[in-house]
Q: What sequence folds into this?
């Protein structure tokens, strides 16, 4: 496990007896240390299933699994490579029973949560309010509060109301045997803290824990990590304080400061060589991060040579900027050895910025994927419909049941669902199975029971019909009938404050139905690569189509390594690298994102604004350091502000990159001229030295 590692990396990989922190700048091989260390630990005799490597996203986990497989072969498959949340799921599935959770508990997504919150407030809250509550409840959970504790510390009336809603919300989750995203950290934490037997089990089970992107852990994740590591503290954390970009989600750099205090034997290892980027790119990165206060002093150098100067591109508008980016991709592809689309990435601050670039890429017939945004299948309306399909395919999918039975509302209230939930739990059945249990009438009143039975029969009936619906035309008719029957369009219009938004969502639904029908008809113009197994030209039943689609929606992070240009937010680009990166929208107000002092920059900046500016600067640093060979940074003279176009300026970060004007604007012809002059001068000197008479 020592090939392709420098001395400091080797030290980190071979130190397996105690706690280690690898603290180093971007592209210095921190993630590489983790993958190699997995191999080293196995070599040293640790069973693969006793090694946990924690990554920041599911995608990063998939990539690490691949890399580990490449290094150590099949044994890699038993290593626990996952996110903190997935580890939480694992702990809860195995040991959640002591908290009253059955192993098949359901995990709710953000939409499920808003729905339940609106319901818990007996319909007094609109979607926006519910989302605000969700945010506050999430914050409390991340601080380790339950509803009672939240109420006790509530600062004002609004917080008191939310704490009361939280209490009802928690009751409902228990009844539904469901947990939300925050629970995936806070419940395992509670479990390990309050139940010594469970804690000891996990501590002795996991022989070594590795954490990538450690700088972006939040306070609860850190507590969980500490409990898992235990007193033996066999762990390796790797991170970079300059790349901490999730402060807005509660990540805290304090976790970096706490580590040496909580683990006094911590070995800190620094890596200084960057293997990713050219010197020109690295210099720009170092210059940008320079003004930020330093938690740990670091230096980074590259031996990949100076490389091409970083290019600054100014554009009149976003459309113009997009055209220039596409032209650059096409130009580089035509004139260099970089022929694969996957070698190019366009990175921006916020999701909505992708649009003009998508349009320009489409016009030029360039294949691309948008990562880090909401994919079509993650949209609430599509997930609503998919919940029904999931229920056809797997009757035991409880979250799908809850979603289908409540969206659109069909007069089955939460009291009924709560009773059904309890009953199902007592009988160790899924909600759907419990529906037809002969004992259910003893706990649910007749009228509610009739509603439940009707729903159950309707789902079964739909499934039967879908099985016998073949081809595009009948599928389309089936889907439209069904949407009419459940009143989905009305549901959208009733739930949205803005008619325009509702119309857009309904349009998505129609587009989706069209897409499904086409697949049923075998007219598979499928650019998504969604099911490579299905051959075009074959007619399929709607149920078959629903099956692949419902699978898709649950594994939407499954992004294959397609040969396409990547469009991504800076946040989602963390840890990744591309030969050619175009950082776009590097315009004041976008990056840095609008700061409070926007109007008068000279005014004294508040501490909070200063902290936000520092985080924006780290974001810029992350963006620059994704580039391996070339980097271009572009900005626009005008930008959208609400509906208006307002004059805009280049981002202060462009000046901070301190690109040397002479190299940035270097013209190859000038360089040639300079070389010729130099050559002539040397020749003249040599001639003079040899004593020959000058002409
Ligand atoms: P980031 O901070 O962006 O997450 P990182 O520190 O995790 O970066 P890696 O992604 O592990 O860095 O490595 C960056 C690149 O350098 C990768 O392409 C990796 O394969 C390569 N690399 C790392 N270490 C070495 C080495 N010792 N020799 C050659 N290449 C290396
Ligand atoms: Mg990394």
A:
């Amino acid at each position: 496990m020592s090939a392709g590692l420098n001395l400091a990396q080797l030290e980190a990989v071979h130190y397996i007896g105690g706690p280690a922190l690898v603290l180093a700048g971007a592209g210095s091989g921190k993630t590489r240390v983790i993958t190699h260390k997995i191999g080293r630990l196995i070599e040293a005799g640790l069973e693969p299933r006793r090694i946990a490597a924690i990554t920041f996203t599911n995608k990063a986990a998939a990539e690490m699994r691949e890399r580990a497989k490449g290094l150590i072969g099949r044994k890699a498959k038993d290593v626990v490579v996952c996110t903190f949340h997935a580890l939480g799921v694992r702990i809860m599935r195995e040991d959640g029973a002591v908290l009253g959770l059955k192993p098949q508990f359901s995990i709710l997504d953000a939409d499920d949560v808003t729905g339940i919150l609106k319901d818990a407030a007996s319909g007094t809250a609109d979607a926006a309010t519910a989302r605000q509550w969700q945010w506050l409840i999430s914050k409390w959970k991340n601080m380790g509060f339950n509803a009672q504790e939240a109420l006790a510390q509530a600062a004002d009336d609004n917080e008191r109301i939310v704490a009361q809603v939280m209490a009802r919300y928690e009751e409902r989750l228990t009844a539904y045997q469901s947990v939300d995203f925050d629970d995936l950290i806070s419940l395992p934490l509670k479990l390990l803290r309050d139940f010594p037997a469970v804690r000891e089990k996990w501590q002795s089970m996991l022989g070594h824990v590795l954490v990538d992107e450690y700088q972006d852990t939040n306070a609860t994740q850190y507590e969980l990590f500490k409990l898992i590591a235990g007193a033996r503290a066999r762990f390796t954390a790797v991170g970079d304080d300059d790349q901490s970009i999730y402060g807005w989600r509660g990540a805290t750099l304090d976790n970096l400061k706490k580590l040496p205090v909580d683990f006094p034997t911590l070995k800190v290892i620094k890596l200084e060589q960057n293997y990713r980027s050219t010197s020109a790119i690295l210099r720009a990165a170092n210059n940008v991060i320079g003004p930020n206060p330093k938690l740990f002093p670091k230096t980074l150098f590259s031996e990949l040579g100076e490389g091409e100067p970083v290019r600054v591109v100014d554009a009149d508008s976003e459309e113009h900027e997009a055209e220039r980016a596409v032209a650059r991709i096409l130009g580089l592809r035509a004139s260099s050895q970089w022929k694969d689309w996957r070698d190019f990435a366009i990175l921006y601050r916020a999701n909505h910025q992708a649009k003009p670039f998508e349009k320009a890429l489409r016009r030029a017939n360039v294949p691309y994927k948008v990562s880090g945004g909401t994919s079509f299948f993650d949209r609430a309306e599509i997930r609503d419909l998919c919940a029904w399909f999931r229920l056809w395919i797997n009757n035991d999918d409880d979250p799908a049941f809850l979603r289908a039975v409540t969206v659109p509302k069909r007069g089955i209230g939460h009291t009924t669902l709560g009773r059904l939930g309890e009953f199902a739990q007592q009988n160790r059945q899924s909600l759907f199975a419990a529906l037809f249990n002969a004992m259910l009438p003893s706990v649910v009143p007749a009228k509610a029971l009739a509603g439940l039975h009707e729903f159950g029969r309707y789902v079964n009936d739909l499934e039967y019909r879908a099985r016998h619906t073949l081809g595009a035309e009948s599928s389309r008719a089936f889907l439209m009938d069904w949407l009419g029957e459940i009143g989905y369009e009305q549901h959208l219009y009733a739930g949205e404050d803005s008619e325009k938004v509702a119309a857009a969502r309904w349009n998505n639904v129609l587009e989706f139905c069209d897409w499904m029908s086409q697949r049923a008809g075998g007219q598979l113009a499928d650019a998504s690569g969604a099911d490579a197994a299905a051959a075009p030209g074959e007619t399929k039943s709607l149920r078959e189509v629903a099956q692949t689609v419902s699978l898709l929606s649950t594994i939407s992070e499954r992004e294959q390594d397609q040969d396409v240009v990547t469009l991504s937010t800076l946040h989602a680009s963390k840890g990744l690298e591309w030969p050619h990166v175009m950082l776009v929208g590097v315009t004041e107000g976008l990056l840095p994102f609008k700061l409070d002092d926007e109007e008068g920059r000279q005014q004294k900046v508040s501490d909070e604004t200063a902290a936000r500016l520092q985080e924006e600067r780290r974001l810029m640093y992350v963006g620059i350091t994704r580039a391996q060979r070339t980097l271009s940074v572009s900005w626009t003279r005008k930008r959208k502000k609400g509906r208006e176009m307002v004059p805009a300026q280049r981002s202060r970060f462009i000046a901070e990159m301190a690109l040397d004007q002479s190299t940035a604007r270097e013209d190859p012809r000038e360089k040639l001229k300079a070389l010729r002059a130099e050559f002539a001068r040397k020749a003249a000197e040599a001639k003079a030295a040899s004593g020959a008479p000058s002409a």
